[in-house]
Amino acid sequence: MADDITTETADTVAAGQLRAFIERVERLEEDKKTISEDIKEVYAEMKANGFDTKAVRSIVRLRKKDQAERQEEEAMIDLYKAALGME
């Protein structure tokens, strides 16, 4: 009988913990949706002010990388462009 109570209690605790994790993920997903909408609004505002949003997105992507990673990527792009006669 004691083993049944222990198992039931453990199941209840695990279920409660699982529910808490799921609820945290759901809140974070909602936050992510809100942030994504905010980012879209900023890009729309930039576009309305005459900025090239494709170029801005490229700059944002580049700024996430460290200098060595950017240089390596740029060197590879230059190499591929040269191989294709684009320079």
UniProtKB/TrEMBL annotation:
Matches recorded under InterPro entries: GapR-like (IPR018753), GapR-like_DNA-bd (IPR046367)
Occurrences of domain GapR-like DNA-binding (ranges): 14-85
Ranges in a coiled coil: 18-45
Domain of life from the UniProt record: Bacteria
GO MF annotations in UniProt: DNA binding
Record bears the keyword DNA damage: no
Keywords: Coiled coil
Keyword Coiled coil belongs to the record: yes
Family: Belongs to the UPF0335 family.
HAMAP family: UPF0335
Protein name: UPF0335 protein A33O_09059
Organism of provenance: Nitratireductor aquibiodomus RA22
